[in-house]
Amino acid sequence: MFLVSYDVTSLFTNIPLSETIDLAVNAIFDGNSESHLKLSKIQLKELLNFATSHIHFLFNDCFYDQIDGVAMGSPLAPVLANFFMGHYEKLWLK
To answer: What pLDDT, in 10s, does the model give residues 54-80?
Structure first.
């Protein structure tokens, strides 16, 4: 048996946001038949897109838009990165 640990460089800012949101929404709805969530899949997807896309940040006195990935410091960044990496980890381990 081997224990292996990997580190992904700039994970949050490099995950494909649209694909990751789809994975998260599908995991929430497909994994829980008795969901107490009062939103549809489409509504949840729209809310996650709104909360994670079109993020503005300041660097060297200039404003920039984050166009893909999740912004560093976003409360959703670790959750979405875990969905993305967990999905592919399952595929890679098969």
So the answer is: 788 888 999 988 888 888 888 888 889
Q: Does the predicted model carry a pTM greater than 0.70?
A: yes
Tell me if 23 is assigned to some domain. yes
Residue-wise pLDDT for 7-61, tens only, equals 777 788 888 999 999 998 988 888 765 667 788 889 999 999 998 887 888 889 9
* Residue range of the domain that includes 53: 13-29+49-93
> Is 66 strand, coil or helix?
strand
Q: How many helices (H) and strands (E) does the chain have?
A: 4, 2
Amino acid at 50: F
> In a 3-state reduction of DSSP, which class is residue 20?
helix
Please give the tally of structural domains in the chain: 1
In a domain, 70, yes or no: yes
Q: What whole-number distance in Å separates Cα of residue 12 and Cα of residue 25? A: 18
61-to-43, 58, 64, 92 alpha-carbon distances in Å: 36, 6, 10, 42
